[in-house]
Write a structure and sequence with these properties.
By secondary structure, the protein is of the alpha+beta class. Helices cover about 15% and strands about 25% of the residues. Strand 5 and strand 6 form a beta hairpin.
Length: about 575
């Protein structure tokens, strides 16, 4: 089932098979070498690609190895992720099994007499999107092929091998300049430990001292929860209020005890608008968050997007709104709280693969409203509100594509000159609410430029370098129901899908007994005020507490999502960041 942007979901019961690429080129046969120890049968390739990228020479059995092929093989002799092999077939005679010919993703290579063909099979990627794998489909998987039609010499072939195999070798077998740059990048990633020793364990210790709690670390949750719910402390986030924003009401249920320890939590760098070179060298390639102050003050949206303007322009337009109780969006809770828990059946092979089968990510309820009706929810005049309700109904226009749904607004904002034509933009979204919302701990697989137009956002970030501490995993999903008649929420629908980006830990109420390594994590505070922009690198975990503008009682933000410069497989807690092959040209 497809997930909303930024909250990646996956199927549980279907298998998505990856495609793999073969690059072919024609080489004149001039060498008398035999490379007899490299011979393999076609079916052997299927085993080799599970661990390595396989470069294969297709040649008739009476034809010797080509000098260029041997030269390239020697260049990659120390590259453990790449292996060179030969098959005694030309491409049109290559069959995986009878009646299973090699297939091509593009125009097949010409079958000239007296020529050889080199092919590159990418290492098979692990399909992490689905927990259920169908054995018959796995057995039937075959990589497709794509033909190479470039110059017939070693250097362009070397470039294609490096591109398809994710390797960085030069013709002499050494690391290329790009490979040296990549290694330097991965060795110098930003770690919060370099600026602070404050951990989530420190957070609990400070709370214990502040409120004189006498308990052991792993048994403090009940007392901390009592404090969190005690309205007399007026707790409202992790940072003091900014002059142009409003502190949350003392009765705001999204209050936390995090502010008790806020002095110990390190803060993001705060800079003025940088050049590309500064941004790339100090922040992008180091995976280091940074707040760029006043970056969007010049946007027309800053003065133009009033509630009245949006109502006049889009009032009758239907929009898709998310609803959640008390402003809490997409937290994790016990599955046993849901009505269909006893009747919902997860296949045994999937259940065994789930690390947390007893938990669910709570997806918000949805409703379609006219834009004017949605704007009324921010003033308390909406028909969704119920005065005597136990839970406040929070409405949020989130993950909403500006180009797709509100295209006229794009002229009121500007993509930043220091990044334009450097990174590939994937999405442009608007976020609009009454400002009393809490987005629970998750990551997004995009480099993010988050721009604050009205109100304030407090973000607590955790680095993605060791996700075993954040307990990254598939977590089953559940969908809230909402009745427009009773104006009440209902925990009704467990789903046959999982979230791949949500954390099972709760930074407001940490359970160190179940998640002990979370105590070792180091939080980073990145707060943005009106006119500020936050660069949040891909895969950084973040929890977002929004606050309304004091006069307009709303929170408005825009974010640009870019193809990430540093990427990783997910969910995979042990996987590390690496340079995205899409940006090899930047190395």
């Amino acid at each position: 089932m497809a997930a909303p942007l930024g909250r990646r979901s996956c199927c549980l019961f279907t298998d998505v098979l990856a495609a793999y690429v073969l690059i072919a080129c024609f080489l004149p046969s001039t060498s008398v070498s035999t490379c007899s120890d490299l011979y393999i049968e076609p079916y052997d390739i299927l085993d080799l690609v599970k661990k390595q990228c396989v470069v294969v020479l297709f040649a008739p059995d009476d034809q010797p190895c080509d000098d260029v092929f041997l030269q390239l093989s020697n260049a990659f002799s120390s590259e453990h992720l790449v292996t060179f092999r030969r098959v005694e077939y030309v491409p049109n005679e290559f069959f995986w099994r009878p009646n299973e010919p090699l297939k091509w993703t593009s125009k097949p290579p010409a079958m000239d007499v007296g020529t050889s063909t080199i092919g590159v099979f990418e290492k098979k990627k692990i399909d992490r999107s689905c927990l259920s794998q169908v054995p018959s489909q796995q057995r039937s998987w075959r990589p497709n092929a794509a033909a190479y039609s470039g110059p017939l010499n070693a250097m362009p072939i070397l470039d294609f091998i490096n591109e398809k195999c994710g390797s960085y070798r030069n013709i002499h077998g050494e690391l290329s300049n790009e490979g040296i740059h990549r290694e330097s990048i991965l060795a110098n990633l930003f770690h919060v430990a370099s600026i602070s020793n404050f951990t989530m364990r420190s957070w609990v210790d400070v709370v214990k001292e502040k409120y004189d709690i006498n308990c052991e670390l792993q048994n403090c949750r009940e007392r901390i929860s009592d404090i969190k719910n005690d309205e007399q402390y007026g707790i409202s986030g992790v940072c003091p209020a900014d002059s142009n924003t409003q502190e949350s009401s003392p009765k705001d249920s999204s209050k936390t005890t995090v502010d008790v320890a806020s002095k110990g939590i390190p803060k993001c760098d705060r800079i003025s608008v940088p050049t590309w070179n500064m941004f790339f060298s100090r922040y992008l390639k180091r995976s280091k968050p940074v707040v760029i102050e006043g970056a969007v003050n010049h946007w027309p949206a800053m003065h133009k997007w009033t509630t009245e303007y949006l109502r006049s322009k889009y009032g009758k337009k239907e929009v898709h709104i998310k609803l959640a109780p008390n402003g809490h969006f997409e937290g994790v809770e016990k599955a046993s709280l849901w009505e269909d828990y006893d009747s919902f059946n997860i296949p045994q092979d999937v259940k065994v693969a789930l690390r947390y089968p007893d938990l669910v990510v709570v997806r918000p309820a949805t409703i379609n409203l006219n834009f004017s009706e949605f704007l009324d929810t921010m003033t308390g005049n909406s028909t969704l509100h119920k005065e005597d309700a136990n839970e406040r109904v929070s409405a949020y226009l989130e993950y909403s594509s500006i180009p797709q749904y509100l295209p006229e607004l794009e002229s009121d904002i500007e993509e930043f000159p220091f990044i334009r034509n450097k990174l590939k933009r994937r999405h442009l979204n608007i976020w609009l609410s009454d400002g009393n919302t809490l987005g629970k701990l998750h990551f997004d697989p995009f480099d993010n430029l988050l721009c604050q137009i009205r109100g304030r956002k407090e973000l607590i970030l955790f680095e993605p370098h060791d996700n075993t501490k954040l307990y990254e995993a598939h977590i089953p999903e559940a969908l809230l129901g909402f009745s427009t008649k009773t104006r009440e929420f209902r925990r009704k629908t467990l789903m046959d899908s999982t979230s791949m980006v949500m954390a099972p830990v709760d930074i407001q109420d940490p359970d160190f007994k179940r998640f002990p390594k979370f105590a070792e994590t180091r939080p980073l505070n990145c707060t943005i005020n009106e006119g500020d922009m936050l660069f949040m690198p891909a895969f950084w975990w973040h929890e977002v507490q929004s606050h309304p503008n004091i006069e307009e009682h709303r929170n408005v933000a825009v974010n640009f999502w870019y193809e990430p410069f540093l990427t990783k497989e997910f969910p995979c807690p042990e996987c590390r960041l690496d340079v995205n092959p899409y940006y090899r040209h930047l190395l």
